[in-house]
Design brief:
single chain, 4-stranded antiparallel sheet, 13 helices
Length: 369
């Protein structure tokens, strides 16, 4: 196989509901959609779901656009390859920049699956035919607003709710949700906003029977995570801390992790995300697929990844309609009573709405070999 052309589309879509975390809020997103074409004319799509601002990770839309245009796409154009795992070897000299790499890696997997007439999930080795979906809820203006959002998503059938927390918005919101829903699969996500000195405050969450506390401390502070895990019963889940397989090995050695959130974007694409799943599964660590408010292309890739056997917890693969009034794929990702069906059609399993992409693109560039 040989990729002879690549297009990068910077697409802007509004969110149906503003989303706020411990670091920032957002009501509109720009993501880069990657379109790879091989010499036969087959097309594979991927998505760079990087944030616009460097708060979750160092990368931004602008940095990913630069890396894609200047380094990553030129590294693969005109090169022969047989398996999608080989693409990452072509840009191996480029350090970091996982979000930028993820869009091209995923597009390579979709292209390979399309040419070989197999569903993306099957290409990855997935075994599940359906995926249980959870929802992630941001920081709301009031606890009553939060309870309204929880009720709305439980009524839609979602069995798991994740709450974003931050100092000043943690114990009391969690207490209110737990009081209203004693049996709810509930966990919290701090996005690394707390410090080790606030560990005693985090220990107060132990009484609420949470499924996990996700990323309480800064990404590189694995010792603080290990120390907190020794002092609480609630499992610590790592997200931002694990960008590479080496990060995962360090966390395992320190016993700083009991659950792993695998994000395709954060890991640099489906190749590394699958490898992280395999290692965690071998170590007995349950995993789930986190989300970055992906458009439909990235969301479909998340569904395919979540079909792997180690994804034993509900994943952030909720329906497209939770975030977008119209998505870039048809049909959109649909959740029925909190369950998403894994597509059986070849490749991505959805049609890509190129007209809608063109309508909402704020920039497009084409590179050829």
């Amino acid at each position: 196989m040989k990729i002879v052309a690549a297009k990068l589309h910077r697409v802007r879509l509004p969110l149906v509901h503003e989303f706020r975390t411990s670091s920032h809020g957002k009501s509109m997103l720009d993501h880069i959609l990657v379109e790879l074409t091989d010499e036969s004319g087959a097309v594979g799509w991927g998505e760079v779901a990087s944030p616009s601002d460097p708060f979750y990770a160092p990368e931004t839309v602008e940095s990913c656009w630069h890396l894609g245009e200047r380094y990553l796409v030129p590294a693969i154009l005109g090169k022969e390859w047989e398996r999608p795992e080989q693409l990452s070897q072509l840009w191996a000299k480029v350090r970091g920049n996982q979000f930028a790499k993820s869009g091209l890696d995923t597009a390579g997997w979709v292209l390979w699956a399309t040419i070989n007439c197999v569903p993306l999930a099957e290409a990855l080795g997935g075994t599940r035919t359906e995926v249980v979906a959870g929802v992630s809820l941001g920081i709301e203006p009031t606890i009553d607003d939060l309870l309204t959002e929880v009720e709305r998503h439980l009524a839609a059938g979602y069995p798991r709710v994740k709450l974003k927390i931050a100092p000043g918005w943690d114990v009391e919101p969690v207490r209110a949700v737990r009081s209203a829903h004693p049996d709810l699969d509930l966990h919290v996500d701090a996005n690394g906003i707390y410090t080790a000195e606030q560990s005693d405050h985090l220990k107060a969450l132990d009484e609420f029977g949470l499924t996990m506390i996700e990323q309480p401390f800064a990404p590189r502070d694995l010792l603080a995570h290990a120390n907190l895990q020794r002092q609480i019963a609630t499992p610590i889940c790592l997200d931002e801390s694990v960008e590479t397989l080496e990060d995962l090995e360090t966390a395992l050695s320190l016993q700083a992790i009991r659950v792993l959130n695998i994000k395709v974007s954060r890991m640099g694409g489906l190749t590394r995300a699958r490898a992280a799943h395999d290692r965690a599964h071998q170590a007995g660590i349950p995993v789930w697929c986190g989300g970055m408010h992906e458009f439909g292309i990235g969301r479909a890739a998340n569904v395919a990844l979540s079909s792997l056997p180690g994804f034993s917890l509900p994943s952030d693969v909720s329906a497209s309609a939770k975030y977008y009034a119209q998505d870039v794929i048809t049909p959109p990702v649909i959740a029925t009573q909190g369950v998403v069906q894994v597509p059986k059609a070849p490749g991505l399993g959805h049609d890509v709405d190129t007209a809608f992409i063109a309508q909402n693109a704020v920039a497009t560039i084409e590179l050829t070999s």
